[in-house]
């Protein structure tokens, strides 16, 4: 099915990866480490951490526990030995809600990302790997949960912010170097090594007027760039190179507003992704932990 027209404008030149998607909701004011609910207009002060966190939650998700759906689309490239290869188109969404706690917010979400043919945009179930010559069984991204805990006394919860003309930009940078859930000993074909390394650069954009007003919703756009290792189902092991994701998206009215290609995949196999989580759970899933639960190690036929 041809992809529907893009509904957003990419403002950042590059954008980040695993996609935390956004929306805007009512303003809440923090004071002394405790959350003080208020629906009054509170203009953003880009020099005040309390004000920044208020605006960030408003842009990222609703401050009331209503369900929020953000659709996104983009491209994935392989970078190997100085050459770039267009590997996939992607399409997906994040569905979540926010919950107030005494000193911040819990953002509760699930996320779907489908890997699609770079020429036809059709959802892939098999992938002829140009680097190995093998036919891979595609495992789409079904991340449940994908939660974020924002706390007013945690500096990591406060994004970078700047105002450019009539727009507010909120930026979060994630650089991760953690133990790989897929150990090279058990998963020699899927694992890129003992450590999992990736970088995600995410930008949320809304107008100053929408951030400062007293409404419970306002248009917000997101753009993401992610640089990370080969996907485990590609069977690339520790081969040189990496994947670059360029993704952008926007809020849609509801799950039913998503393209049919997405809804068919969800309703045929993962109907729980029609809804946001009702409560906090963990730990967060990743494509690597998901793979370890759903697949067995590949047979190593590499020379």
Verbal overview:
By secondary structure, the protein is mainly beta. It has one domain. The chain is 12% helix and 38% strand. The chain is built from four helices and 14 strands. It has helices at 49-60, 208-212, 260-269, 287-294; strands spanning 28-31, 34-37, 68-80, 83-101, 104-116, 126-128, 135-137, 141-143, 148-151, 160-164, 167-179, 195-207, 221-228, 242-252. Strands 3, 4, 5, 8, 9, 10, 11, 12, 13 and 14 form a ten-stranded antiparallel beta sheet that branches. Strands 1-2 form a two-stranded antiparallel ribbon. A two-stranded antiparallel ribbon has the order 6-7. Strand 4 (83-101) and strand 5 form a beta hairpin. It is globular. The chain starts with 27 loop residues before the first strand and ends in a 9-residue tail after the last helix. Residues 1-41 have low confidence and may be disordered.
Spatial shape: globular
Count of runs of 4 or more consecutive helical residues: 4
Radius of gyration, taken over Cα atoms and rounded to an integer in Å: 20 Å
Estimate the helix proportion, in percent: 10-25%
Distance between the termini: 38 Å
The structure class reads mainly beta
The count of DSSP E runs of length 2 or more, i.e. the number of strands, is 14
- Mind summarizing the main beta sheet? 10 strands, antiparallel
| Average predicted local confidence, pLDDT | 85
